[in-house]
């Protein structure tokens, strides 16, 4: 059993990761500044004897003793990461430097939650890890995309320069319970709009595509990656290759929720990628993993979560 640090542990993915690691018998130290995370996500863990919570911003040094580090701290939705873009870049870059410095002092294994956004608006489809991407360095999404790219650079330089034991996963769009109801991501937006009987907001013509992975599948892959042998660094794509247009997603959610919502079309945000689908050949081979949860099933449990949230008046 290990002492494991999860940065961003009060967020959507981080809180599920804390649950899972505690379930496996580990000691978990959750570090979060609650920028986008919430106490609600981890409230059920607060009395757990192997769980500890520290309010801390990873852009500042952190001196703790752990065996492994999952570095997830960073706002992930465009609405949130564009709210204070300078802080977003700092979180990715200074946060990575501090967590890598911590890992170096402890010789601890460290995993970075990178993103499909490192591929930008891709001209290779689906995207394999060897693709270098097409990212606008000065656009509205750059604080996130370039911050994450620089974090990858830092991980690989600490690996080469200091022989650090690193793992990098590139996460594609992931959804599930505990997504933030107001974070503006497409799955949470469409579900909350459908449940409230409001119009469903399609940006652009709705023919842009994304591939949606359920959080349970995602965490299977992420924890498998953490357990791979030393020297296997990745990056490894994690996502569900099932690709859907935003119009298809809206239709599926409307079918499952019912109700009378209409589709309304709004302008496409700047630099919004046209299409995205992970090539997961490497994850299949190196992690023996592939996603199992079909979109329809995953949407059902996400809808149930938001239904409860609305009923409690929390959304
Ligand atoms: P989230 O916004 O729910 O969680 C991020 C967490 O990090 C929050 O709890 C937030 O309070 C915390 N945080 C932000 N800045 C911090 C700082 N400076 N110091 C300490 N804590 C800080 O987002 P998520 O969807 O759970 O994403 C988790 C990680 O996975 C992020 O690094 C994100 O970039 C990555 N990722 C997520 C997706 C996805 O689809 N959900 C896709 C690709 C990559
Ligand atoms: N750091 C940290 N916790 C530690 C060790 C280091 O937060 O336990 C930070 C440290 O403050 C520094 C960063 O990690 O800013 C990088 O550390 P490293 O040792 O790589 O570089 P240096 O300290 O030489 O700048
Ligand atoms: N989107 C949409 N309506 C919404 C929110 C998002 O049509 O209410 C679109 C958005 O323009 C993008 C896609 O859905 O093309 C996925 O957006 P999200 O913010 O979830 O993820 P990302 O763009 O970071 O992949």
Automatic annotation (TrEMBL):
Pfam annotation, one family: Epimerase
Stretches assigned to the NAD-dependent epimerase/dehydratase domain: 4-239
InterPro entries reported for this sequence: Epimerase_deHydtase, NAD(P)-bd_dom_sf, UXS-like
Coiled coil feature spans: none
Cofactors: NAD(+)
Gene3D superfamilies according to UniProt: NAD(P)-binding Rossmann-like Domain (3.40.50.720)
Keywords: Decarboxylase, Lyase, NAD
Keyword NAD part of the UniProt annotation: yes
Protein name listed in UniProt: SDR family oxidoreductase
Species name: Stenotrophomonas mori
């Amino acid at each position: 059993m290990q002492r494991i640090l999860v940065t961003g542990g009060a967020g959507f993915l981080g809180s599920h990761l804390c649950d899972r690691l505690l379930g496996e018998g580990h000691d978990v130290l959750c570090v979060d500044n609650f920028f986008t995370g919430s106490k609600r996500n981890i409230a059920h863990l607060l009395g757990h004897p192997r769980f500890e919570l520290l309010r801390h911003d990873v852009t500042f040094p952190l001196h703790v003793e752990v065996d492994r580090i999952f570095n997830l701290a960073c706002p992930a939705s465009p609405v949130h990461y564009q709210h204070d873009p300078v802080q977003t870049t700092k979180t990715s870059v200074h946060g990575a430097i501090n967590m890598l410095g911590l890992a170096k002092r402890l010789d601890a294994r460290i995993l970075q939650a990178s993103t499909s956004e490192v591929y930008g608006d891709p001209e290779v489809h689906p995207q394999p890890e060897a693709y270098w991407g097409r990212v606008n360095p000065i656009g509205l999404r750059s604080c996130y995309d370039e911050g994450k790219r620089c974090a990858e650079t830092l991980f690989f330089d600490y690996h080469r320069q200091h022989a650090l034991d690193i793992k990098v996963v590139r996460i594609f769009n992931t959804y599930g319970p505990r997504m933030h109801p107001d974070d503006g991501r497409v799955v949470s937006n469409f579900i909350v709009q459908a449940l409230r009987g409001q119009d469903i907001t399609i940006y652009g013509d709705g023919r842009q595509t994304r591939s949606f992975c359920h959080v349970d599948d995602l965490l299977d892959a992420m924890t498998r990656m953490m357990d791979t042998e030393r020297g296997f660094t990745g990056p490894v794509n994690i996502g569900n290759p099932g690709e859907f247009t935003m119009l298809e997603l809206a239709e599926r959610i409307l079918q499952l929720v019912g109700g009378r919502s209409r589709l309304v079309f709004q302008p496409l945000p700047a630099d919004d990628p046209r299409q995205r689908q992970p090539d997961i050949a490497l994850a299949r081979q190196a992690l023996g993993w592939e996603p199992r949860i079909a979109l329809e099933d995953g949407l059902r449990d996400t809808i149930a979560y938001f239904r409860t949230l609305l009923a409690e008046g929390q959304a």
